[in-house]
């Protein structure tokens, strides 16, 4: 058996960029190490208007999500009276898509720069909810569609389920971006109370939206109609997308710490191709060894599943110290009828 070891070939320009990125990252790390134990200049104070812009943008986004979570069950029950079948199917699809594709969304958000992730989040969330709202409006306005044209009725229901699931997944990406990233970056260099206060306000915004959006939706349904609530929701998802983007991009441009964190994020992603630059590649001439053992289709499938993001996320979760309390809390939810269906039973 003859083994010839060769180095991977990299384009000259990409190599220079990657090397420069490695140098910058190493210089940042050296500055951090040298700066330890030395007094550093305090960060500039956070301007109140940027914090308010962050809160207002997050409120608009969460209000849309919480309104849909409450309203979709009402729409499904109205379309299929005296049955929770459509509502249960939607809940299963939404929860299943979050469990399966949630880790992939997290990896995408982690690998993107802030502006691209922000645009993708707002576009997918608001466009998905607009499509879902439009499908629901069509179903509500044409109430006799089910007995008259089953295929069209089923297509619109499927479209509602798929669009709603995509909206929930994009909402997960936005939650990671704002709550786990921007809030932490904005509070760097400040006392821990700053991050605690920001987290408490953000959670308060989410819970307030969850509490008040059903009230407003119920008032529209009671005093106007169910169709009016669907039209209002679709209109809200369409209009607020532009306002949300303007608010969030103003925060990005107005807080230097976020832009600096984004630059480090991009540089780290550029260093990934450099890893393994000197890794040897083995070339074996034809006929120099026997036939290698062939993997069966089942083994390839199992190998692919074991390397998937879904399995990898569960491995990370199992290694956490809070795995048992988390499983206990999940088992506790088996005894609770969630998804607002307890309001109708």
Automatic annotation (TrEMBL):
<dbReference type="InterPro" id="IPR009716">
    <property type="entry name" value="Ferroportin-1"/>
</dbReference>
<protein>
    <recommendedName>
        <fullName>Solute carrier family 40 member</fullName>
    </recommendedName>
</protein>
<keyword id="KW-0472">Membrane</keyword>
<feature type="transmembrane region" description="Helical">
    <location>
        <begin position="153"/>
        <end position="178"/>
    </location>
</feature>
<dbReference type="GO" id="GO:0016020">
    <property type="term" value="C:membrane"/>
</dbReference>
<keyword id="KW-0812">Transmembrane</keyword>
<keyword id="KW-1133">Transmembrane helix</keyword>
<dbReference type="GO" id="GO:0005381">
    <property type="term" value="F:iron ion transmembrane transporter activity"/>
</dbReference>
<dbReference type="InterPro" id="IPR036259">
    <property type="entry name" value="MFS_trans_sf"/>
</dbReference>
<feature type="transmembrane region" description="Helical">
    <location>
        <begin position="118"/>
        <end position="141"/>
    </location>
</feature>
<comment type="similarity">
    <text>Belongs to the ferroportin (FP) (TC 2.A.100) family. SLC40A subfamily.</text>
</comment>
<feature type="transmembrane region" description="Helical">
    <location>
        <begin position="211"/>
        <end position="239"/>
    </location>
</feature>
<comment type="function">
    <text>May be involved in iron transport and iron homeostasis.</text>
</comment>
<keyword id="KW-0406">Ion transport</keyword>
<keyword id="KW-0813">Transport</keyword>
<dbReference type="Pfam" id="PF06963">
    <property type="entry name" value="FPN1"/>
</dbReference>
<feature type="transmembrane region" description="Helical">
    <location>
        <begin position="322"/>
        <end position="341"/>
    </location>
</feature>
């Amino acid at each position: 058996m003859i083994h010839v070891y060769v180095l991977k070939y990299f384009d000259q320009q990409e190599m220079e960029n990657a090397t420069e990125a490695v140098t910058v990252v190493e210089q940042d790390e050296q500055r951090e190490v040298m700066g330890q134990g030395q007094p550093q200049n305090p960060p500039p104070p956070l301007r109140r208007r940027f914090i308010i812009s962050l809160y207002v943008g997050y409120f608009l986004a969460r209000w849309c999500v919480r309104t849909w979570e409450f309203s979709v069950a009402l729409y499904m029950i109205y379309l299929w009276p005296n049955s929770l079948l459509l509502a249960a199917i939607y809940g299963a699809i939404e929860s299943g898509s979050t469990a399966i594709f949630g880790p992939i969304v997290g990896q995408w958000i982690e690998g993107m720069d802030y502006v691209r992730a922000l645009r993708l989040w707002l576009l997918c969330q608001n466009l998905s909810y607009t499509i879902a709202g439009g499908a629901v409006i069509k179903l509500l306005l044409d109430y006799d569609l089910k007995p008259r044209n089953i295929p069209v009725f089923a297509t619109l229901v499927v479209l509602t389920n798929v669009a709603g699931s995509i909206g929930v997944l994009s909402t997960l990406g936005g939650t990671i971006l704002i709550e786990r990233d921007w809030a932490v970056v904005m509070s760097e260099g400040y006392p821990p109370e700053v991050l605690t206060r920001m987290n408490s306000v953000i959670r308060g915004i989410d819970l307030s939206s969850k509490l008040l959006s059903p009230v407003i939706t119920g008032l529209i349904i009671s005093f106007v109609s169910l169709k009016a609530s669907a039209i209002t929701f679709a209109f809200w998802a369409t209009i607020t997308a532009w306002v949300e983007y303007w608010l969030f991009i103003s925060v990005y441009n107005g807080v230097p710490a976020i832009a600096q964190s984004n630059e480090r994020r991009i540089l780290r992603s550029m260093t990934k191709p450099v890893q393994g630059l000197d890794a040897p590649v083995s070339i074996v001439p034809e006929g120099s060894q026997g036939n290698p053992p062939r993997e069966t289709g089942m083994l390839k499938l199992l190998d692919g599943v074991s390397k998937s993001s879904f399995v990898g996320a569960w491995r990370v979760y199992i290694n956490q110290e809070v795995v048992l309390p988390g499983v206990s809390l999940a088992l506790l939810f088996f005894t609770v009828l969630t998804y607002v269906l307890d309001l109708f039973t």
